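LOG
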Amino acid sequence: STQSTWGLHIGGMPPKKKKTPSAGTKAPTVPPKKPKTPVKNAKASKHSSKRLKSPSDEASNGKKEKANPKKRLLDLSEEEDEVEVPQKDSSPKKIFEGLLDSDSDHETEELAVERKAKKRKLENDAVQEDAAAEMEQAIEDGDNESPFAIVTREDAPDVAVIQRRIQQTRRVLSNFKTARDPARSRKEYLDLLVRDVCLVYGYIPEMIARFMHLFKLDELFEFLEANDTPRPVTLRTNTLKTRRRDLAAALIARGVNLDPLAKWSRVGLVVFDSRVPLGATPEYMAGHYMLQSASSLLPVVSLDPRENERVLDMCASPGGKTTYIAQLMRNTGELYANDVNKARITSLLGNLARMGVRNCIVTELDGRLYPKLQGGFDRVLLDAPCSGTGIIARDASVKTSRTDKDIERCAHLQKELLRAAVDCVDASSSGAIIVYSTCSITPEENEGVLDYILRKRHVKLVPTGLDFGTPGLTKYKMFRYHPSVTLARRFYPHTHNMDGFFVAKLRKLSNRLPKSNKTDDGEDAEDPEEEEPADEQPTEANDDDGQDDDRRDDDDDDDGDDAGDSSSD
C-alpha cells in the first residue's frame, strides 16, 4: 500500500492520512467563519474571494498574515484577466504582504513630486513660449527703434542686449539716409558699433576700426566669428620618406579620421579627429609627416623650387617651409635656412634631422645683413615677421596686443627684409624669384610693402601660381598702391577656412639699382648717384630706403633684434 501511494504522487510528498477521532475522544469544535468583506471597485467574479488585502485592512485586524508569495502571484495573474485593478495596485510593492506602511506613504510622496515637476515644466514651457513671442514682436517693433535707446549697465553689460543693439546699428548703417536719427551723425553710429563689438568679441578699438576699413559690415562679422572658430588640423606628407597614400593608411589604422587636403596640394592631409596624439605617433617620430597649417604650404607652392638650385629661406624657423622646400628639391642643390633667433634655431635643427633633410645649411644672422654674407641665389623665400592678424584663431592675444604703432613698426622691418631678399637674388639665374608672405591681413604689411619694393628695385610682380584666393588691394583708406599688386593673393579664415595669409611672387629684372626717384612728398627716396650693382652696395648705405616714405611718417629703427623671426609656421 505504501508503494502504491508513492506511485500516485511522484512529484511530491505522500498525502497525510486523516486522523479519525477515537472512541471517547471529543471532536474539536470549529469556530464559525466570518463573512468576508466585499472588495470595492472590483467586478464580481468567482475569483473575487481570492483578492489580496491591503496593508490598512491587515493593520485593522491587529496582525499581519504570512502567505505563500507564489500562490499570491498566481492569484494576481488570475485576477488581472477578469478584474480591473487600479494602477497603483499593479506595483510589485502591493504583491507581497508584510511591507511597512511607510512604503505606501513614500510612493504617494514620489507621485506628488512628479506632479509638481510636471506642473513646473509646463509653466517653464509657457514662459519660454511667451518670451520667444515677445522677442519676435520686439524685433518687429524695433525696426524703427534707435540703437541709442537700447541701454545696458556699464559695470555688468548684458551680451544679449548688446547684440540686439549691434543688429539695430547695422540696420541703420545699411540704410543710413532713411533709417538714421536726424539728431545723430554717422560717426556716432560707428563709434557705438565699435564699442559694442569690442565688448562682445574682446578686441581693442584700434583693431576693430582697422577691420571696418578692410571689410564690409556683413563680412566683418563673418571674419570675427571665424576668428573664434578653430581651424582644421592639417599635416604635410614628407615624400622624402613615404607617400601620402601609405601615410594615410598607417594613420587610419591608428584611429585617425582624415582626408586629402585640397586639389592644390598633393601632400596635404586634413584631420577631423584622432584617437592618438598626432605629435607622438611612430610615423611622426620617424619624420613621415609635419604638423603644418594649410596656409603655410602656400608660399612654398608659389616659390616652386627646382632640383640643383640655390635657395634661401630667410626666416626659416621652426622649419615647416624649409623642410617642404628640401622635399621639392629632393635633397639636391643648396638650401640655406637662416634665422636671427638662436632659441628658434634649435627647433629648426631638430625638424631638419627628423625629416631627413641633407642639403641644408643653417645660418644665424640678421636677415637685413644677408646680402653681405651670400648672394647669387636662384630663389628666396621671405616669410616675414608680422603682426599676426591672420592667426587670431590660434593666438587670441592678438586681439588686445596689436596697436597701430606695432603694425607700422612691423611694416618698416618688412620693407628692409624684402629689400635684402631682392638683393640676394641673381637676376641672371634660372629663377630670379622672390616670394613674400605674411600671416597678416593688414594692407600696410602686405600691399604697402610691395608698393615700396616696386619703386626701390628692378622687380615686377608675377602670378603666384595659386588658382584661388582674393586679389590684392589697390586702395585702402587714403593709400593707393601699384595696380600690379592685384597679382598677389589674400586668404581669409571666413572665406577659405584657413589662417589669414598673404602671398606675393616677384621676379628680379636687373641687378642694378634704379635711379633716384621722388616720393609723393617731394623728398629723395634714393641717393641721386650713378647706378651701382646691388651686390656691391652695402645695406647700411640704404638706411633711408627703410623709412616709410610711401605716404607714412618715419618709424623707429629698434626692430633689429626681431629681424628674421617668423611665426607663421
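LOG (cont.) second protein
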Amino acid sequence: WYQRRVRVQKSCQYEAAMKASFTVDNPSFKEKVVKLQAAIKYDEDDLQGAKSMVEQCASDDPDTENNLGCLLVKEKRYAEACKKFTAAMNVKGYQPHLSYNIALCHYYMKQYALALKNIADIIEKGIREHPELSVGMQTEGIDVRSVGNSMTLHETALVEAFNLKAAIEYQLKNFEGAQEALTDMPPRSEEELDCVTLHNQALMNMDSSPTAGFEKLQFLLQQNECPPETFGNLLLLYVKHQYFDQAADVMAENTHLTFKMDPYLYEYLDAIIVQQSSPEEAFRRFDDIANRHTDNQRKITKQVQECRQNNDEDAVKKAVNEYDEALEKYIPVLMAQAKIYWDKTNYNMVEKIFRKSVEFCNEHDSWKLNVAHVLFMQENKYKEAIGFYEPIVKKHYDNILSVSAIVLANLCVSYIMTSQNEEAEDLMRKIEKEEEQMGYEDPERKIYHLCIVNLVIGTLYCAKGNFEFGITRVIKSMEPYSKKLGMDTWHYAKRCFLGLIENLAKHMIMVRDVVLHDCIQFLEHAELYGKNVACRIQPPLSAAAVHELQGKNTVTYEARLIKGLLLLVCDL
C-alpha cells in the first residue's frame, strides 16, 4: 500500500497522495510516510509545510540532511545546501544522487569546474559498475537498443548527470559538447525519455531540427510535470522565430505559469508582443524595464566597491556574479529597444540608444559588435566602426574562422572605404591561409568566409554604381561552385544580379557584352550546382509554406529565373 501511494505522488496526483498517506497506519512505515508527505509538500512548492515535515524526522538520519538541502536549493541558498548534501554523503558514503545534488549546487553558483568534477565521478562509476547501460555508444554511432527506465538506471543518476553536463556545456557556449552529453547518456526510445531530457533535446537541437524542437516543448507544456523553464523557453523561441501570435496565445492559455516566471522575462516578452501592433508603446515599456535594470546595476556596482574596501573577497565575487547576471538580463532589453529603430533604418537613434548604455555595456561583446554594425551602416563612420570591429577580430586572430564572416567582411569594407587597402589585403590573406589549412584537414567541409568577404566587397562596388568590377568580383568569389555555392553566398550574389538587371532595365548603366556573357555563364553554373542548395530557411511551424516552397526553394530555380530576366532585359 505504501508503494502504491508513492506511485500516486510521482504521477503528480498530490492531493490524492496526501489523502492516501493518512490511511497508512502501520507503525513501521511512520518515518517513511512523513518523508512522503514532505515530498508532496515540496512538489507543491509548500516549502514551509515541507520543512515542518522534515523537522519531524530523526536529526541523525542522513535523509533529513539531504531533504533540508533540497529545501535550501529551492530557497536559492546553494552554499548552505551544498554543506547539507556533503554532510549526508559523509554519513551514507558515496551515492550518485547526493553527488548530483552537490554538482547542482555548484552549477547554480556558477562553479562549473567543481560541478563537472562531481558529474565525472558519477559517469565514471556508472560506466565501471554498469557497462550494460551502453554509455557513450550512441555518440560513437553504434546501434544499440533501449536500456529502458530500470531501477538500475535510476540508482546510477546517469540521466541527471548527463543532463546537467549538457546544461553546463550550453552555458559555456560549447554547443557540440552539449549535444554530445545528451547522446552519451544510456539509450532510450523517445517515449521512454523523462521530461528534462526531452526539454534539453529540444533546446540543444533547435538550430538543426526546429520543428521537432517546437513539438517537444509544446508536448511538455501539456504535461502535469515539466521543467519550470519550458514555458519561458518556448515563448523565447517563438519570439526568436517571429511567431508572435503563437507566443501571445501560449501566454493567454497559461496565465497560471506567468506568475512563476521571472518578472523581467515576463515584461520583456510582453513588450516584444506589443511591439507588433504598437512600436511606440513597446519602446516605452522597454525603456521602463531598462531604467530599472540600470538602477539595479548601479546599486550592485556600489556593493562591489564597498566589499572591495572591506577586503571581503567572497562578497566581491558574489556581487560581481550578481552584476553579470543583471547585465545578461539587460542586454536583450537594450537590443530589442534598438531594433525598433533599426527596422526603421534610423541608425542615428540606434547609436544614441547604445551610447546611453556605455556605462554598463562597454565591455560586453554583443554590445560592441552591434555598435560596430550600426556605425558601419551609417556609411560615414567607417573609421569608428573599425575601432569596434578590430578588437573582436584580433581577439580571435589565431582562429580567425571562428569570427562571423560578416564581421570580417564589414571590417575589410571599412578598411577599403578609409583607404587602408593593405590592411584589408592582409586580413583577406590570413582568411585564405586558414581556409586552405582547414581544407587540408577536412576536404569535404564547405567554408564560406573568404567568399562572403569578396561578395560583400563586390556588393559595395555594385551599390556605388561600378557594376562591371563588382559583378566580376562576385563571380570570381564563387569559384569553385561545388564548394562556395551555399544559402548565404547565394543571398549576396543574387542581390548584385538583381541590382544589375534593375539598372539595365531603367537604362541607367551600360555594361560590356563580355561581362554580360560572364553573368549568363555564372547563372548557368549556379543552376547546375544549386539543385540541392536551399535559398532560404523554411519556416519550422508552417507546413503550408514548406509545401508551397517545394521545388522553388533551390538556387537552381532562382538562378533560372534571374537568367531569364537578364536575357529579357539585354535581348541576348
